[in-house]
Amino acid sequence: MGGMTEPVRVRGSVVVPDAELVWRFSRSSGPGGQHVNTSDSRVELRWDLAASDALPAVWKERALERLASRLVDGVLVVRASEHRSQWRNREVAAARLAALLGEATAPPPKARRATKPSRGMVERRLENKRHRSGLKQGRGRIRPQ
To answer: Which of 56, 105, 112, 141 has an alpha carbon 20 to 30 Å from 63's alpha carbon atom?
Structure first.
């Protein structure tokens, strides 16, 4: 595995261009022993969603709306520091960004159409209620002799 990581794929053939991604590295508080004090293994990935033209307009609107609480001035930030190696953390960060965007750009769910229970179902339910009621009526009443 040489070169850059996989492109960040949103959904289908839509990808975030590498040029729009800003990577920052810093020292991680995670695993790594003494090595951790000298290596920049924590990864921060920033992407300016508001300024980007990578997404179709409809998706972009959806993403801006759904990620509003996560954005700082239209910029989406993802951090990763769970692995010792910067490379693995980069992969994790890219995957997280892709997952976030995939979710944020998904089409809204279909509206639920109200339906009426069938007559047979209603009758079965009522019959079952009568049956249960009868069973419970017949329980545990002890009459004095």
So the answer is: 112
